[in-house]
Fold each of these.
Amino acid sequence: MAANDIQVVVEGSDLPRRLKDKLYETLDAKGIDDVETATDVKEAVEERYLDTRVDPLDPVGTVSAQSIGEPGTQMTMNTFHYAGVAEIDVTQGLPRLIELVDARKTPDTPMMTVHVDPEFVQERLDAENDDGYTERDVAHEIVWQIEATRILALGDVSTNVADMLVRIDLNEETLDERWPTVGTTAEVTAEIAETIESKLDVSTVEPDDATIEFGPEEPSYRGLLQLVEELREIVFKGIDDVSRVVIRKEQTEDPDTDDEEFVLYTEGSAFGKVLDIDGVDASRTTCNNIHEIYRQLGVEAARETIINETMNTLEEQGLGDVNIRHLMLVADMMTNPGTIESIGRHGISGNKDSVLARAAFEVTVNHLLDAAIHGEVDDLDGVTENVIVGKPIKLGTGDVTLRMGSRPDTESESAD
Amino acid sequence: MSVNSSPKEIGSLSFGLMNPEEYREMSATKVITADTYDDDGFPIDMGLMDPRLGVIDPGLECKTCGKHSGSCNGHFGHIELAAPVIHVGFSKLIRRLLRGTCRECSRLCLTEDERDEFRDNLERTRQLGDDLNDVTKAAIRQARKKNRCPFCGEKQYDINHEKPTTYYEVQDVLSADYTDRIAAAMEGRPVGDEEEGDVDREAQSPTQVADKTGIDASRISEILSGEFRPRPDDRKALEKALNVDLTEEDMNKLMPSDIRDWFENIPDEDIRVLGISAEKSRPEWMILTVLPVPPVTARPSITLDNGQRSEDDLTHKLVDIIRINQRFMENREAGAPQLIIEDLWELLQYHVTTFMDNEISGTPPARHRSGRPLKTLSQRLKGKEGRFRGSLSGKRVNFSARTVISPDPTLSLNEVGVPDRVATEMTQTMNVTERNITEARRYVQNGPEGHPGANYVKRPDGRRLKVTEKNCEELSEKVEPGWEVNRHLIDGDIVIFNRQPSLHRMSIMAHEVVVMPYKTFRLNTVVCPPYNADFDGDEMNMHALQNEEARAEARVLMRVQEQILSPRMGLNIIGAIQDHISGTYLLTHENPHFNETQALDLLRATRVDELPEPDGENDEGVPYWTGRSIFSELLPPGLDLEFSSSTGDTVLIEDGTLVEGTVDEDAVGAFGGEVVDTICKQYSTTRARMFINEVATLAMRAIMHFGFSVGIDDESVPNEAEEQIGEAIDNAYERVAELIETYEAGDLESLPGRTVDETLEMKIMQTLGKARDSAGDIADEFLEDDNPAVVMARSGARGSMLNLTQMAGCVGQQAVRGERINRGYEDRTLSHYPRDDLSADAHGFVESSYRSGLTPREFFFHAMGGREGLVDTAVRTSKSGYLQRRLINALSELETQYDGTVRDTSDTIVQFEFGEDGTSPVKVSSDEENDIDVDGIADAVLEAEFGDDGEEFLTDTQTNLSEQMDNFIAGDD
């Protein structure tokens, strides 16, 4: 009964969820069960919380912009730095921050972090039921479904000019490794040969299990070389855009256990395709391309990604002390219309209502000419416009109409 | 339109094109003379400097408004253009309209249904606030597809646009060699450049052709001989009969006057579909028939030293336009040939074009006599120094001062030392009343040169009088209540102080004035971090506030003590720096003893004037005080804290007493010093200000007491250490050599996802990195704990152990682009090394320490690494500056509301609760540890319940009424 009353007390407060939960925890830990004490504690916490709330009319936008922009001056320009995974180069520092704020269609170095579904791993292990078959093997199976396999990775390509033939000597070990589920080498070779036939429009012969030979229809030296060129581009397995995958064994996110799991890091990204692969844990797999996230998971996920990516970029530069609320505001502003909008001329600043604000930012003359044609009216609501015409800005102290001790306008006029 | 009255406050601005009729009406004068001034230096009537356009020379009277220079804003005039010309800015839109409307009836070439659809679409986009151009462009594209006008059925031709301002209609006309073509076709030969075998045709006799086409056979022979040009109908019939194309494309130039006539007929409802406002901007107004002449005040002429007048770029351009315009008219009246008229027309177009925009691609810019391109209308608006960003968004202000800054530790952090010559120049307005009349009279009496004097007085009738040395005595007696006195700055006035670049709000703070001799602004060193200032020649700006509202806001919101906490991280940004930290470290690290004189001397610049109970007595029975208890005197009573310091020990503060631990950067430093941060959040900003001030003075006393200096000998290590360092480096060299050997033998195993070369590089880098670290460890080991450089590094005052390692041990690997140095000559970095030498020293490993000095080769590599850093900084400042500008521009309109939502100024909700929980980033950092301490609060409440004096905890809230707090606290002590 007391627990119920306490719940009523806590839920009735103005506290955010996070603090309510914390309050329950604390009350529990301290063994407080009488409603009066609980109310006292609640009120004290509430008072403290209300104390730390943002003031109404606080120009939070400018403050957030400054809080992100100012550390920008302390960041390095060095594009490449080894982040997290030593094997994969990721754009870091100021260039990455600019890239995020610009909402580029593709980042400089696209990358994905793919988590393996533990249930899938268990299923596979059970199915194989073999001591030699480990979690790592399961992870590798997934890797080969992601990483683009091109011919050079599978074997040697040689040209026989005399017979006008392209000869591929496949490496059996590699085939076994990359097609773990297919039985014999001959089958894999046949599969590869089929791909080549369909992609290059040639007919192939397989002199033995691991060799494929084919040539141009009409013997021509140029045609032969062309075939080899085209052959190199063919993706036999995996996703085109992913050029490399690195496997790492990492501690699971659960801090209570020492469990480890395999995490795959990819160079190049194809988020949608990866999510469709069996064994990929779609709930934890991420990508550093906000547009891909937006397409696959929607704006809210994109917003979250913007926050995470900017925070990571800042942390990597030793600027992790920037309050995350500033990043949230930027992300919310960028995703406000329901799509991703960049910060700058092509996005938020270019779509402002006010002609003057747009003209004062960039491409001044064009904005003025367009405004004339469309017969636009600037209502002077924003900040920049009011600076230009010399009126007080409707932010902070400029937004307050309440004055201490003043009478309503009509009265003060008659009093004068 | 009323010219004389300008509104007091602008409610909204409406944009549109101007009707030439309206323009003529409001024009002050027609301008017909290309000259400016006559021989006597008076403006010529109906010339470009006509006094009706406004006046710039002092003494002259404006003929339109009767005001004098300074108060007359100027009036527009006009030039009647001899022939219409195109406005360059709209050349693209003109092209679109030409393409989308009918050449005959001028209607938009869309069926009623299509038009309605686009209109609805446009309305929707407008409501959604999306780009209108997408819709209008689609409409034009649709209209352009039509070959015939859906209304009058006229055939439509394609429009070619030759940038910037020429338009052609592409029409099919009879080709020049039509006779040959017909003849060839009739003989069954291939025609023109048709490929062989492409068209099969039989030879036909003229009679056959005549039958098919219905044209007389005789007419056909006439056509064949070239005596008769076939009419379009005949041409078509012939083409059909002979299966031959007789046309070729021809460009028919559209003159601006044609275009104007064309546009005049476009109905209003049609242009609305294209997003054009029919009321404000008729499309024909894009073709100018009358040119506005900006007022003289917008293009003032400058009188040079030799008395010659130098005209503004715009005036030059207008002179050109008038000249050509005049010539055009004369030629036309004289009946000059069409060719000459067209040339002049083009020339007029060129001048009007460059008058508007002188940076059009494809057009040579109009140049000044000196060869400099003219700055015309567009150029005046554009860019950083343009009208919008340079003059409207950023304005120049009065009551501002700028000079070099220098440090003054005796000032409070709230204060700024203002040079007397600045204080006597900048004034504050004082409203004289009965209560301050004696003061006011005294200020005036002191005159403009004596320090707390006055520069101007204003009588109740609004007349402003300058106070001079001569009239000050006399004037001071006249001052009565109701007057205004502009008195000099005095101690205690509030001013705004700023250092550029103003990257965050702490770059502009309010300080209290302390008037001082000499020429620099003086500030306390603890405010250097927020301004990012140092004293190597930095200059700062000061602004004196001019009304009571601004002064109140500055005092309550902008004063330095209100800005101790940075909203970026929710921690203090003002705190002890550099020597202050060394000082507190020396004072508290080994907890030294002080006798009474020493202790009092340490505390003499603080409020503390009585020492606490001594901590003990020495062997001779003289009482002593420890460093920590002296430091504790500055702490507010009731402060409890526990944290680990950057020195490595645990700092424990109980009830305002430092029990144990070293006070260093983590305790009192700027950027998150625990103690400062806690005092600021739990007590008040006033208390925090007092604490920081006192810590700074105490630390300065302490550091002076112990003495603190760094010399080159402080970085030297004994021979023994040098040998060890040499050994460590030799070891690393050996390991590198081994690595190279395995690599060359081809035995090096590559790391996953790396090539062998990359692996080798990484391993070498790693080995050499370790070598430097071990050199550092050795140096560290041999450096004494009381070594000043070590003290600075440990306490966090300045420098790091890495800096020390480089000075005493080994500088280490130099890097360019994150790799060892690989550039220079072919296959080697310098000609001192063999080709393909992979060894450490050939790729920029610096074995020497800074103290021992670098070898020439090392020095060179070091310079390479250093240069990269410099370039990086230069590039970074511009990039991050632009990022900041964009961010601020995008977010500047966001504000929290009373309901907790974050909205922009058009009331669009961006967040329902700022940062998801409505917590201010100033008061709470996002750090887990700094969240609201529910546990602690619960403890406090429990204690309050069972104890007796737990009340205090909750009453300790912050206040902005710092003035009262000041008195309260000052009175307390």
Amino acid sequence: MWSYSLKRAATTAVTLLAASVIIFAFIHIVPGDPIYVLLGDTATPDQIDALRHQLGLDQPIVLQYLTWIGHVTEGNLGRSIFFQAPVLSVIADGAETSALLATMTMIWVTLIGVPIGMIAAVRHGTWLDQGLSGAAMLMASIPTFWVGLYLILIFAAWLGWFPSSGYPSIFEGGIVNLRYLVLPSLALAAPNAALILRLTRASMLDVSREDYVRTARAKGIRPWQVVTRHILRNALLAVVSAFGFTFAALLSEAVVTETVFALPGIGRLVVQSILRRDYPVIQGVILVIVVVYLLVNLIVDLSYRLLDPRVELQ
Amino acid sequence: MLSVRDLTVSLGPATAPVDIVAGVSFELAKGEILGLVGESGCGKSMTSLAVMGLLPQPGPQIRAGRVLLEGSDVTQLQPWQRVEAGHGRMAMIFQEPMTSLNPVRRIGDQIAEAVRVHDRVSDAPATARARELLELVRMPDPAMQLSAYPHQLSGGQRQRIMIAIALACRPQVLIADEPTTALDVTIQVQVLGLLRELCNRLDMAMLFITHDMGVIAQLADRVSVMYAGRIVETADVAALFGRPRHHYTRGLMDCMPSRNFGARRLPTIAGQPPAPGTVGAGCVFASRCPAVREPCRTADPPRAEVSRGHEVLCAFPLDDGGPR
């Protein structure tokens, strides 16, 4: 287990290094310049050169990369050109919103996707199954922003149950502020829960045709015990790996959701930083996202070992 | 003990059913081993699944006939329904030991689960009983094996586990669907020996399904030969092997390598069995029968008791007057 974790950590480091090169290269290939954003159209060439030199943007790109990566290994992601503050603190400001949003979303995805998928599988072929599967197909096809707008319309504007936008920190307003995240997390969960639902259903139907399920039935245990003790756990093996992919999809969909709900999260930060050509922030945020994504997948792989005794971690 | 009467299992819609098991009847007495033999696709596995109440859903349906266990009608009842109703006890082991155990649960759990249902006991006594059952099926080191996972065991060991699970149901009737087909020959002998011994010791009847005439000769008390969804001949083992009366049985025996020692080429039965749904009037074996006569093609053959306990489904059985 430990040697496996070490090996995984090593490959993770290599992946991170490769990711850092790609992030850095792509951002600098994109046309545009933070200098113009900062100084506006009226700047003189002297001012521009001075600022460019001050920010280190006049140096060769390879040198810029090495300087950046050197600082990163020391835990210093640089300073935001726009905010004039350390990138780490800029990210930290958005991290609370995004982390809570992602957590709530994954909770919805699990609570909606797995049990309803299970019901659809147990009742497969019936109108209930067709209704649920059809609804899931619909949810998977509707864009997140559309779902978000309708959730705002119904639950915020008409019913007034939840706030429509923004998010004041729970550290200031207490745990009740989580209500600000209910609608955005539901919007974000809808397509992902639909995918998990369909996957759970398909996987359970596959497993229910296995010989060992017939053995379980032959024992004389009740049908629901056959489902919970024999079909579900084997079916979840396939579903668990999908959680890793779902999480990746979440990161990109969060950009849209945070915009629709005006949430001060990482997603919105990255979009605004791209528009401002705030290189250090973009690099920092994407690097953090890559780290989180790799961690989530590591957790998924490790959880396999708990679910399936045949898996040897090497 | 177990009585199956005119069992018919069909595929397809009720308006146009295709019979894959057509009017199968047999009796299984207490402690008796009945072999059900036939080639692949003849309906022997479907018969066993239908009797056990384990036909896959959606799929084939029991269209007619009855299954009586200890006198109570258990037709269409799934195993859990039989347990609920407190009917006689029937258990089953399957052909594929490699895939018949749940890969993510421990052996002990899988046996104890069956014990809990049938003995209505809690976890601790169920585990103790699971250990006893492992000893009964002669698993080496039973205490250790309780916490093993299926992938850590060999095919022969897994089949022993399957037998232990079946025995946890304290069955009066054990259905064994080709339990040794997937095993090495040496392991096969051990498992057959074990099954035979368990039947004697526990006074358990067994319906043993196989395509292997050799296995039947070693193991069974009586044999039913199945062809195209029908039982064509039933007799005591000695009578059937000594004096087969159905032309199909005769053909099967001629194909046995042990009876043709030194032959360069084994005799075969010409042709193919009819596909389900293509069976019309007359004898199902008519198209392949070496002794076919004109009435065979148009009239259904009678089921005749040619001697005591020896039934044959043929209008002109072998050895019936005059030399063959």
